[in-house]
Amino acid sequence: LVAENGMNVQGYVRNPLTGNVDPNLGVQNIQMPAGLQTPIKTSFFNLTMNLDANAPSGTQYTTTVQIYDSVGTAHIAKLNMVKDISSGATPTTRWRFDITIPEKEVAGANPNSTADFSLLTGAVATNPPTQGALVFDSGGKLISGYFGPDPAANPPLANLQIPPTGVTLPTMVGGATLNPGITWQLLDPANNTPVVSAYASPSDVTFSTQNGMSAGALNNLTVLPDGTISAVFTNGQTVDFAQIVLAQFGNVDGLAAVGGGLYQESITSGASFVGAPGSGGRGVMIGGALEQSNVDLATELTKIITYQRGYQANAKMITTTDQIMQQTMNMTQ
Q: Which residues contact 49 (CB under 8 A, 6 or more apart)?
């Protein structure tokens, strides 16, 4: 990032280890992002949803979530569910499920296949799904989730790791791979409460998210008031990659002008104090704005007319004085 005169613009830069702009790295030349943003394999997904408590046993419900492989290819994973109400003195409500992708996207499969491939078994999916289950109490609260056959006692509720132990996720067509441990977040990371419910309301997903993404090219840049420069990529991702800094001086009027609108530190100005815009009394940045004139045109025109009339009056006084002196000299002759 350079100024109009080609000089480097400096600031705080992004720490590659943390992914955040890090002032501890000191002030450096700001390097613009170039090329494609590296794709990220999906490692977790979250489906905040309700499963209809009034649906009869055997009711099926399907929803989808997009997951990305190692080269940034998106795959539509289907969550296939079927309601199962066990008989007995205390009926238990389970929604059995499987998570699948199209078999034709798996390396070695028939490219014309219309079957689904289970990420829970590593084989062609069966219907109805029986590879896992979500268990709800009588109040519609999710109390357990597991893979495989029903255990003697329901395990404590926890996030589920896909695939289950002993199952290896397949290689995709072209050699790409999925994340070997994709977390299905059944618990809200913020408060550790279930995000899936079974209330008397139609089955529906109200929120869906995952952390994978395809490769993306730089599409736009924005500058925030605190100097943070955000890069917007074509894959929809926004990354803060630098922060422009401002310098303060004890005596701004003491800065030495070096031309081209540039000033440098001097003995009179004192040492610089560098920091983020908007902090410590520093001004803020306005991205995408061109500085306008800081004078009022009407006022300045009025001043010009006033000065012009003053000049004319003074010139008239000089002319009159000259004429008086000339007359005086003529009288003495």
A: 63, 195, 196, 197, 203, 204, 205, 206
Measured CA to CA, the distance from residue 15 to residue 17 in angstroms comes to 5
117 backbone dihedrals φ, ψ, rounded to 5°: -110, 125
- The 10s digit of each residue's pLDDT in 220-233 is 888 999 999 998 88
**Whether the Cβ atoms of residue 95 and residue 115 lie closer than 8 Å to each other:** no
Query: Amino acid identity of 38?
Result: T
What is the C-alpha separation between 265 and 288, in angstroms, rounded?
28
- Direct distance between the N- and C-terminal alpha carbons of the chain, in angstroms, rounded to an integer: 79
- Which pTM value belongs to this model? 0.69
Reduce the DSSP state of residue 42 to 3 states and report it.
Answer: coil
**Locus of tokens 């009159």:** 320
Q: Which of 150-154, 219-223, 240-244, 288-292 has the lowest mean pLDDT?
A: 288-292
Calpha distance 227→287 (Å, rounded): 8
Q: Are 67 and 178 in contact (CB under 8 A)?
A: yes
pLDDT tens for each residue of 92-122 = 899 999 999 999 999 999 999 999 999 999 9
Residue pair 183/195 in contact by the 8 Å Cβ criterion: no
Alpha-carbon gap, residue 58 to 20, rounded angstroms: 48
Distance CA 227, CA 240 (A): 10
Confidence of residue 29 (pLDDT cuts 50, 70, 90): very high
- Report the distance separating Cα 164 and Cα 149, nearest Å: 13
**DSSP symbols for 58-124:** T-EEEEEEEEE-TT--EEEEEEEEEEEE--SSS--EEEEEEEEEEGGGBTTS-TT---EEETTTSSB
Residue 251 · residue 20 · CB < 8 Å:
no
Q: pLDDT tier at 297 (50, 70, 90 boundaries)?
A: confident
Nearest to 40 by CA among 242, 239, 195, 243: 239
CB atoms within 10 A of CB 263: 16
Q: Which of 205, 80, 209, 95 is nearest to 144 (CA)?
A: 95
